[in-house]
């Protein structure tokens, strides 16, 4: 006889409190009570302040830098496991360290694989995430992974802009699949940027494959870090006759001088989700929330109902 379904319990890591509050609001239940004690040397200890025995627990937290964010998720997973939670789902809107998904030169780690194993060892029985840097990261897990697409929230926003002569662009060859998926949904043309890097985060050369003359271009990518690629691509496209250039990036990592680059760039606007909280204000950055998407999927997971309708791409 199957056990009776208990109510789900939602908890948040400190770095994702604002998003988690929005998710809980859409879900229809308050966030659970967690307190974190911090030692003078920076070591910290999260503690569930309510019983979670036999419950389905969702722990919400993106793992963007610093590494303390990942550590907090791991500690909360371990605490939930030791408190006898029945199901423990790590809800990670942004899965950090995902750019290290393979060995691209000798004697380097495959960090994404390592993180997957750490999450499972800590106690995660399921992962919910969005727009992984590389789809194959799902295969690093031995537990179920629900890989959501931000296109679910971006496409309605794009359609509402009613842009004439719309063209979707990928800022690099690796993102061409994502760009083609958006173009199919929007019935638009596609162009691809070909870039060469001198080293990480430094572009030495960029070429454009396709025609953007007289087009309103929307660049699509999974994340924006230093914004060097996006701003360089916008410059190249405007030089080639584009009417306007916008960008859609799921995860606003925005490190270094990214905010300044975006503000001073030829980008009309940068549209992002709230998977990672912004650290500065920028008039060109518009945030579209992914909270309702995650709340719907979490509820479906808890109720054992299909989530296939949430996969637009």
From TrEMBL:
Its EC number is 2.7.6.1. CDD domains: PRTases_typeI. InterPro entries: PRib_PP_synth_CS, Pribosyltran_N, PRTase-like, PRTase_dom, Rib-P_diPkinase. Residues 9-123 form the Ribose-phosphate pyrophosphokinase N-terminal domain. Keywords: ATP-binding, Kinase, Magnesium, Metal-binding, Nucleotide biosynthesis, Nucleotide-binding, Transferase. It comes from the Bacteria. NCBIfam families: PRK01259.1, ribP_PPkin. This is ribose-phosphate diphosphokinase.
């Amino acid at each position: 006889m199957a056990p009776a379904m208990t109510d789900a319990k939602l908890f948040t890591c400190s770095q994702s409190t604002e998003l988690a509050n929005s998710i809980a609001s859409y879900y229809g239940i308050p966030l659970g009570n967690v307190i974190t004690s911090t030692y003078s040397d920076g070591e910290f200890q999260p503690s569930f302040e309510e019983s979670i025995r036999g419950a389905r627990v969702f722990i919400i937290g993106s793992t963007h830098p610093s590494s303390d964010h990942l550590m907090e998720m791991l500690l909360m997973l371990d605490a939930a496991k030791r408190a006898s939670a029945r199901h423990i789902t790590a809800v990670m809107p942004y899965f950090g360290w995902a750019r290290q998904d393979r060995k691209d030169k000798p004697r380097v780690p495959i960090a994404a694989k390592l993180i997957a194993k750490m999450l499972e060892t800590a106690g995660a029985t399921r992962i919910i995430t969005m727009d992984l840097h590389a789809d194959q990261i799902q295969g690093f897990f031995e537990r179920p992974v629900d890989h959501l697409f931000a296109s679910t929230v971006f496409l309605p926003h794009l359609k509402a802009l009613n842009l004439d002569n719309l063209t979707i662009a990928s800022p690099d060859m690796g993102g061409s699949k994502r760009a083609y998926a958006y173009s199919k949904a929007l019935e638009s043309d596609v162009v691809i940027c070909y870039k060469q890097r001198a080293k990480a985060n430094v572009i030495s050369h960029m070429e454009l494959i396709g025609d953007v003359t007289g087009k309103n271009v929307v660049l699509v990518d999974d994340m924006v870090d230093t914004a060097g690629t996006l701003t360089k691509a916008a410059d190249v496209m405007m030089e080639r006759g584009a009417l306007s250039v916008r960008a859609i990036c799921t995860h606003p990592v925005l490190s270094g001088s990214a905010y300044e680059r975006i503000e001073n760039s030829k980008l009309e606007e940068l549209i992002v989700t709230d998977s990672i909280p912004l650290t500065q204000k920028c008039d060109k950055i518009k945030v579209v929330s992914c909270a309702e998407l995650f709340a719907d999927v979490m509820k479906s997971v808890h109720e054992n109902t299909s989530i296939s309708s949430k996969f637009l791409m």
